[in-house]
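Below is how a single chain appears once it has passed through the pipeline. First comes the sequence as given, then the structure the pipeline wrote out for it. We keep one example in the README because the format questions we get most often are answered faster by looking than by reading.
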Amino acid sequence: EYYFREDRGRADSICKRCIRSYRRNTPNNVWLYGLTINDYALLVEKQNGLCAICYSRDRMRRLSVDHDHGTNKVRGLLCLHCNSGLAYFNDNPNMMLNAIIYLAKNK
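Resulting structure:
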């Protein structure tokens, strides 16, 4: 069984079962940044399977590929919380430093 692509007016060339298998075995957004599964595996190994910021290991989720939004250069792998945190601060180091100062002052 194939997905029908209305925007293309035809069915996909890959069947539903293969797409589901690919998605199940492929970390999110790896292909967006030109990484292969082997590249991702090397990053995981380099980081010992830990988030590059908080050093946690989430056994339920794969690490997300973090990248510079200006250059699309891959920076490393992050857990969901750290990846979202960077996004909320718009990858702005000054905003993050202000947050650190704020937290330190208000302990």
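The two ends are 58 Å apart (CA to CA).

See the next section for the split statistics.
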